[in-house]
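Re: beginner question about structure tokens

> Can someone show what the tokenized structure looks like for a real chain? I only ever see the sequence side.

Sure, here's an example I had lying around. Input first:
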Amino acid sequence: MGRVICAGLGPGDPDLISLRAARLVGSARHVAYFRKAGRPGHARRIVEGMLAADVSEYPMEYPVTTELPFDGPDYNAALAGFYDHWADRLVSLAQSADVLVLCEGDPFFYGSFMHLHSRLNGRVPVEVIPGITGMAGCWTATDMPITWGDDVLTVLMGTLPEDDLVGHMQSADALVVMKTGRNLPKVRRALARAGRLDAAWLVERGTMPGQRIARLAEVDSADCPYSRWFWFMAMDGGPRSGNERVARHRGPWAGVGCDGHTRGQRCTGAGDGCRRLHSLCGAGGAPRGSHAAPFRQPGRD
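And the corresponding structure tokens:
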């Protein structure tokens, strides 16, 4: 019996595929991938030119995407049947050979493969290759860190009710909103109600051709069709103002990080471990011997 292997392909740039995933893509005899009917599929587009000439391809076409309310019984029934069908197909294919399933981003981070994984377990050997998440590619494209020190990162779905979005946004240090598309007007209203709209960034098709980066407040909601792949919003100030946030993490006080330091002690820059850490954080503009950003003790990240 073969295996069903799901390879995370990262945020979209083929150069960001892991070496392990790339080797599997190039040697696979059977490749399956999700797509909307009539579309090539984002995962398939990422590996264009990487597949073997004699590969057998199995496009798994969603029976529904935005045609029905996502929380309705008809939507759930249609997708449940779809995943049941393809789990059976993959098990059948894996009786004689490995089958590679392509997945954008990381398969276990809101990936469609999770629904197959739960149906395949115990029926066929399953292996999952992690990938860089789409949101990591997007916040890197902004050239701004998404979190500092002990900030809490919040990931929201744009499909949530507006009042729920507002509550999470008001308390977030850093925020990512996925699945916006047609929900973008609601997301914008929620950000405005939470007092966070001016701090939000939008990244379209991060790391891919046609990438666009803009402040959300300057983008027309009508310019956000569902077919756009991924949207990301980074709060560049958190619940504090931008200057307060930078000061909090660039002051002369040590966080948990340098040798022997504890929170609240002044950093003197003594010790090889301290100098090593400051050789990194000093690039942020603070002098050595002070913290541009608090690093946790090695091995505790």
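Each token stands for a local structural state, so reading them left to right follows the chain. The chain has three domains: 4-132, 136-242, 251-301.
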